[in-house]
């Protein structure tokens, strides 16, 4: 696992908890479900990195999380400015978004295995 992937997972857990705590108080059900969905996406970044052997699926999950991570941040900021929302939701969304973006900047591939390619002799030149 790369160093920034746990940051994205921490932001995802915090976003899920914030959405569950404020469900019905400050936000509607649709907004809470959307935030929980994005929290699960942020949480999937380290989980997929641990569950797979190569970097392709982990990088794909981090690309999705970093490409769409602005949506829960925007929802949290609108809720903070126009509603009764607290600062936990936008902060959790920002942590998840930045963690997934930073995991893309890290080019290490921990857990990647080299493919088993059989060696063949060189062809005879006539």
From TrEMBL:
<feature type="transmembrane region" description="Helical">
    <location>
        <begin position="58"/>
        <end position="81"/>
    </location>
</feature>
<feature type="transmembrane region" description="Helical">
    <location>
        <begin position="30"/>
        <end position="51"/>
    </location>
</feature>
<keyword id="KW-0472">Membrane</keyword>
<feature type="transmembrane region" description="Helical">
    <location>
        <begin position="87"/>
        <end position="104"/>
    </location>
</feature>
<feature type="region of interest" description="Disordered">
    <location>
        <begin position="107"/>
        <end position="126"/>
    </location>
</feature>
<protein>
    <recommendedName>
        <fullName>SPW repeat-containing protein</fullName>
    </recommendedName>
</protein>
<keyword id="KW-1133">Transmembrane helix</keyword>
<feature type="transmembrane region" description="Helical">
    <location>
        <begin position="7"/>
        <end position="24"/>
    </location>
</feature>
<feature type="compositionally biased region" description="Basic and acidic residues">
    <location>
        <begin position="117"/>
        <end position="126"/>
    </location>
</feature>
<keyword id="KW-0812">Transmembrane</keyword>
